[in-house]
Each structure stands twice: as C-alpha cells, then as structure tokens.
Amino acid sequence: MVAAPAPLDTLCINSIRMLAVDAINKSNSGHPGLPMGCAPMGYTLWDKFLKHNPKNPTWFNRDRFVLSAGHGCMLLYALLHLTGYDSVTIEDIKQFRQLGSRTPGHPETFETPGVEVTTGPLGAGISNAVGLAIAESHLAAKFNKPDCKIVDHYTYVIMGDGCNQEGISSEACSLAGHLKLGKLIALYDDNHITIDGKTDVSFTEDVLKRYEAYGWHVQHVQDGNTNVNAIAGAIEQAKSITDKPSLIKITTIIGYGSPNKSDTAGVHGAPLGAEETALTRQQLDWSYGPFEVPQEVYDYLQKAVERGASQENEWNEALNTYKIKYSKEANELNRMLLGNLPEGWDKDLPSYTPEDSAQATRKHSQICLGLLGPNLPELIGGSADLTHSNYTDIKGENGSFQSNTPEKRYIHFGVREHAMSAILNGIAYHGSGLIPYGGTFLVFADYMRGSMRLSALSGLGVIYVLTHDSIGVGEDGPTHQPVETIPSLRAMPNMLVMRPGDGNETSGAYKIAIQNRNRPTVLALSRQNIANQANSSIEKVASGGYILEDCEGLPDLILIGTGSELDLCVQAAKQLSKEGRKVRVVSMPCVELFEEQTDAYKETVLPTATRRRIVVEAAGSFGWHKYIGLDGTTITMDRFGTSAPGNTCMEKFGFTVANVVAKAKALFA
Length: 669
Description:
By secondary structure, the protein is α/β, with parallel strands linked by helices.
C-alpha cells in the first residue's frame, strides 16, 4: 500500500491546482491540465529539493528550474507565488495572460523574475537545460577547489510527451548522455495526452529505453497523482547518480481532480468552466473560493524565503573564504558575474591592409577566435561537426569539453544544429558571464531558426558563426547555397546579422558581437577568399554602414555591397570613375546597426539626392528596396543556385565587375 500524503502536502498541492484553474477560468485562456497533473511533482521538487532564494531570484549558486512544457506555466507561476517571490503576487495570478502582466501565456525570462528560461516551443526547454548543466559543469571544473565548492547546483526540468516527441530534445539529450551531465535531472510528466487525444495515436515508443540508450539513468514513479514520497525518493536517487543525467518518468492524470475532463485532451488547452470547476472543488474537497489560498499553505511554503536566505548566506561565507585563498580566481568569477569584459580583451584583434593576402572571412574568423581566446576566458562554444570547415576552433586550446575534461571550452556538438542553438541559449541563460558561440553552414540556420528566434526574443548574447554564406559555396549545389537565408535572418527582430567584407570588418564584427550581451549576432562568413580594402576598419563596422570609397562632391551613383560582393563594387567604381562617373561605394556589413544610426548620419552615407543606387549581394533582394528606391536596382539572388565551382556560380548569376558596370550604365541610359 502506498501511504497517503500528509494533509498539509495535499493542501499545498491542491492550492497549486486551484490557482491554475481559477486563473485560467478568469482569463478564459490557458492550459489547466498540466498544472493539475504536475502539482505533486512541482510541489515536491520546490519544497523538498530546489535550492533557491525567492528574495534574490538571480543568486548565482541557486538550482535552475526549467518548465520545458511551457504551456503549463500556471504551475510555475503558482510555485513562484506560493514560495514568496515578489514578482508574482495574487494580483499577478489574477491577471494571467493579460496585457502588461507578469504572468504571460508562456514563461518569459524578460517578464518575470524567477523564470530561468523562456519556454513554449516544445523540446526547447529541456535542450536549454542541457546548456545550463554544461555551464555549471564547466564553471565548477574551472573554479572549484578541493576545499571550497562555490559552483555547485542542479538543473531540474519538468517536460512532457510533446517535449519528448520534438526532435530537438533527442539531439540535446543524446549529447547530455554522452557528456555524463550528472547534475541534470528531468521529471517527465507521463500523462498519455496531447492535443490530438491519447498519445497512442502517434507515440508508442518506450521513452525510458530511449533515454537509457542515450546514457541516462532512468526511473519510473507509477503514481504521480498523490505519492509525494515516491517522487521524493526518485529525486533523491537521481541526485545520487553523479555520472549520468537522470530521467524520472512520473505517470499522472492530466487535469487530476476534474471529474469529467481529466484524462482527456479537453483539459489540455481550455478552461474548465464554471460548472466543471465547481465539481472539481467537490472532488478535491476544496472549500475555498476563487484565488483563495489557506494561510497555512503560505506559512509553510514561504519558509523557502528563510531557507533560501540561509543557503545564500552560507554560500557567501564560502565565497569570502574563497576570495582569501584564491583571490585571482575569485576576481575572475566576480568579473564574469557582473558581466564585465576583461580589460584589453580586444587588443589583439587583427587589422589588415590591401597588401595583406586575400582570405575567406571564415579564415579571418578563426584568426579572431584564436586571438580572442587567451584574452577572453569566458568564450565557450564549438561547431556542429564542421570544425574544419567553419574554423571555429580556438588555436592553442588543447582538448575539448568532455565528461572527464569539463574545464575545456570547445564543445563538439555533433551533427545537431538545432540542439546546438538551444544549448548555446542555455549557456547564456545561466547568467554567469559565459559568452557562447556555435558554428555551422549558413544554410543550416534553417535547422536552428526556432532557437535562434528564442535567442532574439530573450535577448541572449549568443554568437552564431555561420560560414559558406552564398552561392560561392560552389560544387555542393543549391542544397548548400543559401540565398534567402540572410534576408530572412535580417527580418528577425533583435538579431544582428553581420556580413563582413574583409578582414578588418570581420574583426569589427567580432568586437560588436562580443560587446552585445543582450542580443544575438549572426556572423555570415565566406568560403571564398576576399580582398582587404584600403578604407575599411574595425571601428567603422559599429555604424553598420559607411562610406568605403568616395568621389568629389555629391555622387551620381552609390554602390552598396556586403561580404564577398563588396570588392565587386570597389572594382566597378574604379572603372566607372575612369569613365567620368562620380561613384560612391558604401559598405553595409550590418543593416540593423545602420538603422540604429541618426537620420543625419544615414543621410551623409546615402544622400537622398542620389537616386541611382545598386545593391550587390549574393542573397535575396528582400529588404534592400528601402535603400534603392524607385530609381535603383539590385544584383541579388532571387532564385536557387546551381552545382558548379564557386567562381562559375558567381559568374553565371551576374556577380562580376562587368555586370555591376553594365547595370550602373543602364541607370544612366
């Protein structure tokens, strides 16, 4: 016989359930099923295991909690409220999903203190959690001493069937098993329901066997509806396993307590309604009114405030001892936690002249990483199995992040682009000052787009090193030649898309990317060699667009170039100038930064009076028309490429000096 939970346990659990029911009824929108079913596991985890301080949600050594099944966010909001977080009051609960509330429809880090990860797209949260666990493991190996542990916390996750069905979770959890991330513990809400009904219409695999094959420790709690002791015992067991991440399958009834809607798809994403809510109150023996929480529940759960303050004070004492014994390491950690870059971090970024040999910007990128690495110890990242094509290795670094070498900072993500992006987000979410970067081919941004969007939405300073940026890729053909990718990434709010045109601009792009800790950056880099320009510089990149080559007085024609096409503009301008035309060349490595400049500056670069303009970029024309107006044109790629050597591809589609000159002359005809 399974012992019944203590009366206070039941009261706390039902408080979570009914706050979710009442909030979702009031908003007439939301997902009550998960909070009702997961209330026992959420309560057990937060009350008996989670190390956190409600009065200081950003305390560094707290455990991280990720609600991967973000649609069930009323579970998280109820837990934040009941354990004493000022960010979620009862009024905030009542304003669930309303304009300006701190209880939005899915958890958002930028709206609600105490929310660790922005979740909603299923599978992304558990994948972010892998990044959180990597960050903890790396920092623990880097800073902990045998007599002083200052980095020592767990990452806990609640995930559902949907998270396990999305492919991104398979990618991330496979890597987590390989890396033996023992402080990652996932609670899997096994309720057999998704929006389409019973999961057996599409999902019949043995999830535990899958995770066991990944290298995870697995357990099954068969009664997750009432058996708090079994849930607690499973978490204890998971914590004792230090060389594997843990998955605990906890079988629950979705919408537990609802007589007519529990265990149905109907309770997944719709309010219970007044009649069913009344029946649920009877079923749960809940005599309290809407949004009413028994005082003894507050009194008990808000002990987390005192407990958290005590845990943080203990850590502060340990940190003070650490500062005395290990002052150098303590200063570095403190700097990182404050988000300050080391003095002189950018002093070795290289600059170039036209006399320096032409190189691909992916090669310039590798040089930048190699020179930044020694000066920027918080730089951490890798590639999705394309290290020797992306050139994302940090020269001079020996070894990579593995289970036995977590102090290393190069990560082999394997052929897992989507997981890589989500894991990089998780490293950024960790809030420890780590600067994550990851590389793949630009065309495979399509695999990562969901997580890249979350990078931008959450304001995460992730750096995406995306090489082979045009039809210049050549022989691999149109499957590997991005044409629409750059314009589509420029369309994403809060994303910097940098397409440097030479070595100086590549160094400048890295400087901007490293400094931007509140938005992600795409570095779109060439495979083919690019000449270095006489008038480019590291500093000019910060304006987004600038005059690279100019003429006397007002130009008759402006050529706007990016990336490998910038030199085409320069060479065409020289030819046209010899023929008496007044031509200006504008380099536009980052449209977003250019748009942030003053109107006066933009007018100096692109004077309104000069109506003849040509944009040259081996990518789609989308977005460029605002710069060329009615009298300009583009030399762009509004079709797929072809399989041929890179130079042949560029010639076939008009990316030649001769074609730029011809298009320019046509504007004067």
